[in-house]
Design goal:
The protein is rod-shaped. α10 packs across α11. The strands form four sheets. It has a five-stranded antiparallel β-sheet, covered by helices on one side. A five-stranded antiparallel β-sheet has the order 7-6-10-9-8. By secondary structure, it is an alpha+beta fold. The N and C termini lie far apart (about 110 Å). A hairpin with a 4-residue loop joins β14 and β15. It is built from twelve helices and 17 strands.
């Protein structure tokens, strides 16, 4: 080599050494062949320690090449490339210029990467930084979860809403979570297959897709997914998904459905009440005539024994009809409620006092467990007497006069309600008919032994007090009726 060429090489090397930019030579396998690093935030390795290591692992702590990687672009096109490279999870980016370089002495081809700088770009730098910061804040402040991943499944964007839906922190997601871990089973593959198929939406897009998201603790959350594949020159480079948490929506839909059912039940009860009142009034007069004239026949005529027995049967059936009419009128009663403050424990105790000495209760053990801290509550005492008596008598009938009846009262301060629980040790109610027991005219008793109006009336009375009446089988040991009443008066009762 001539002295002049040696001097030229010396000046060239000296110029490279004094250049305040990063220069890295990388193989087509992404291994660092040589580097001159003057600065790199957080990088503690010495320049010599870079050699032989993967560039994306050293500079960005990634297991795979970066998105928009200039080295990958040069390998693909064999042409120089100028790209702005963003690191996953970091706020910094670099403007890199990369170009191919042929190897010498049998060495393979390599790519030179220069941390490029053009003075005229300075005036755009503040605007670019502001724009990037705004975009990051926009993503991380979104109310829906936003998750983006490269085609290996490595997560590169993970906002706060995504963290709340999944249970993972942003750090955990960016460092160790694969996008496939967000979906249960093989769902990630199914979603990608659906996006690649143009028969549903536009190819590469999935809209309003109901799906379960797998949380860190193993539970699932219902979501509405909008997702798309990110393309670059018809090549898939990433996916991005927007996850809308459906838990609250599903809860509100259930509440709405419940309110709708209650409204339908109230309308049905109101219509039946009007019908029952009309029928009862129409039946009262002829029933009174049947009872009166059958009694006159018995008193004024000497009749054979067979005729007397027939007339007595007529009177008995007329009395049963009168009882049904009375219950119909009670069911349809629309008089103003007499609401005053009363002790719920005393109302229950008074009902038990009236029933305790009846023959039906001689072999029934009655357990009373009352909470003495329950304050007086606004109720119609006569209506509640009817409710308690109906439920307790039904329990005694179910036990066929032998068993244990437990009545318990308790105060739930956190909910502002008082609860009365009445349980028996009878055979219980078949699960298939349990939802129907509060419907008018529904009864499990033998024909002629019940009208099917008792529990319907009880349900309506409790509901009119702003409360709730429910029943469930008590672990194979009879039925548990639960009556909930509010501590504060319902405005509709005034």
């Amino acid at each position: 080599m001539s002295r002049k060429n040696s001097e030229n090489n010396h000046y060239l090397l000296k110029a490279i050494e004094t250049l305040e930019r990063q220069i890295v030579v990388i193989s087509e396998e992404y291994k660092i062949l040589g580097a001159r690093i003057t600065r790199h935030p957080g990088l503690s390795l010495k320049t010599g320690d870079f050699e032989g290591k993967l560039c994306h692992a050293v500079f960005f702590n990634r297991k795979s090449p970066c998105l928009n990687c200039p080295v990958a672009e040069v390998i693909r096109t064999k042409q120089p490339s100028l790209n702005q490279l963003f690191s996953s999870g970091a706020n910094d980016s670099s403007c890199l210029y990369a170009y191919p370089m042929e190897g010498s002495n049998g060495a393979g081809n390599a790519i030179v990467v220069l941390d490029f700088y053009l003075p005229f770009l300075d005036k755009f730098d503040d605007k670019r930084f502001t724009s990037n910061a705004f975009l990051r804040n926009l993503i991380h402040s979104a109310v829906d979860g936003v998750i983006a991943a490269d085609m290996t499944g490595k997560i590169i964007i993970f906002n706060q809403a995504a963290a709340e839906i999944s249970g993972y922190t942003k750090k955990e997601a960016l460092e160790s979570l694969n996008i496939r871990g967000i979906y249960p089973g093989n769902d990630a593959h199914k979603i990608m297959k659906r996006m690649r198929y143009s028969g549903y939406d536009r190819k590469g897009i999935i809209r309003s897709y109901k799906q379960l998201a797998l949380r860190k603790d193993g539970t699932t959350t219902p979501i509405l997914l909008n997702a798309s594949i990110v393309y670059e020159e018809n090549r898939e480079i990433a996916t991005i998904g927007f996850f809308h948490d459906l838990k609250e929506t599903i809860r509100m839909e259930a509440e709405l459905e419940k309110a709708n059912l209650q409204l339908l039940q109230a309308e049905k009860m109101s219509s039946l009440g009007k019908l029952a009142a009309g029928v009862a009034h129409q039946l009262n007069n002829p029933l009174g005539g049947i009872t009166l004239f059958s009694q006159l026949l018995l008193e004024e005529y000497e009749l054979p024994e067979g005729a007397v027995n027939d007339i007595l049967r007529i009177q008995s059936d007329a009395e049963k009809c009168s009882l049904i009419v009375k219950e119909l009128l009670e069911f349809a009663r629309q008089t103003k409620k007499e609401v005053k403050l009363h002790s719920l424990n005393e109302i229950v105790a008074r009902t038990l006092f009236l029933l305790r000495n009846q023959a039906l209760f001689q072999n029934i053990i009655i357990i009373e467990n009352f909470d003495d801290n329950i304050p007086d509550i606004p109720v119609d005492v006569q209506q509640l007497n009817h409710v308690f008596m109906n439920i307790i008598l039904n329990a005694a009938d179910a036990m066929e006069g032998k068993g244990t009846l437990e009545i318990r009262s308790l105060l739930k301060k956190e909910s502002n309600i008082v609860v009365i629980e009445i349980s028996d040790t009878g055979p219980g109610i078949p699960e298939d008919i349990l939802p129907n027991i509060f419907e008018p005219f529904f009864t499990t008793k033998e024909e002629g032994k019940g009208t099917g109006l008792g529990l319907s009336m009880a349900y309506g009375i409790i509901e009119s007090h702003g409360g709730k009446l429910s029943a469930k089988n008590n672990n194979g040991k009879g039925v548990l009726f639960s009556i909930e009443l509010p501590l504060k008066p319902d405005e509709s009762l005034k």
